Amino acid sequence: TFSLNMERNQAIFLIIQYLNDLKLEPEVGSVDNLEAATQCLAENFSINTDDINQKEEYALESQTLLELLAAGKTQLGAKSYNEELEELQENKMFQQFLGSVKSKGFFNDTKPGEPEYKARYRRMVTKFKQRMNDSKANSKAAVAAGPTNEEKAEKFKVEGNETLKAKNYDAAVELYSKAIDVCPDGPKSHIYFANRAMARHYLKQHLGAVDDCNAAIERNPAYAKAYTRLGLAQQALNDWSSAVENHKKAVELEPSNKSSAQYLKTAQQKYAAVSPSYAGTPSQPSSTGMAMPPMPPGGMGGMPGMGGNPLMNPQMMAGVQQMMQNNPGMANGMMSSFQQMMQNPAMMQQAM
């Protein structure tokens, strides 16, 4: 005999108890064999299941060997090989791995049911489990390492978006700036710059918004929102020519975006109003409902002899406008004559 530690003695005690219980089962073939097994265990390990002291020391209250086995399997996730195979049949990743292995000829020259096939199949299962364990280990290592700079930047961007919706523009600028600081040239950095541009636009920091939009376009020339926001910032700076061009670019990139199309239309109309030589949109109707012809570059003063023309007197022009409103017929005639005169320098010279 030899001495064992407490856990081993408990295990042997429970095994002998279990074998003694099996003797009472009707399907047991040979009770003599069970008797011999329990006697060998008892003698070799000095275990007596009838001894009161050993019962108090080794027996477990209200728990059998089978109950302990079931609880241990659940706790540890332990499974037999066949139990694992049953679960793997429902695992899509395993089925893909199995298909790949078969396509490479791993099971050639053997058939299901043969010992060699079973041996190879077991090796294949072991390889799959190793890969899965390696993948889990890598995932745990990634979690332990903490979030990447891109993940940190995305978190700041999401917080910035929520803050922007709440109209807390200063805080939004700060959050987008943090995203840019941790990831200035990542795959989504153009979004951080463009979003900060929008927040700065609301704060009337239009020059800063222009810089941010240009930085966004530099990182992703196909990002339509950057052109739209650049156009809006340029509108605020009265740079209508540049605004129109950038809104056009946004529409080219996203033709179905109705907002971009409306921004372009508005910019074109405003540009035409402040720069009559711009031909991007139709002439605006006058108060009489008729389209006024565009003025030549430099205004009327750019034509010979027009500097002192009394027709350019503000009071005279106001009177003419009032007369045209009161008498549309006369207005039509005057407009026709005016258009002919504008197109004929000789007539213009005579009118001076």
Task: Briefly characterize the structure.
With 352 residues, this protein is mainly alpha-helical. 68% of the residues lie in helices and 0% in strands.
Describe the structure.
The C terminus is likely disordered. Helix 8 packs parallel to helix 10 and helix 16 packs across helix 17. The chain has 352 residues and is mainly alpha-helical. It has three domains: 76 residues, Single alpha-helices involved in coiled-coils or other helix-helix interfaces (Up-down Bundle); 65 residues, no CATH class; 125 residues, Tetratricopeptide repeat domain (Serine Threonine Protein Phosphatase 5, Tetratricopeptide repeat, Alpha Horseshoe), CATH 1.25.40.10. The protein has 17 helices and no strands. The longest helix has 31 residues. Helices cover 68% and strands 0% of the residues. The chain is elongated.
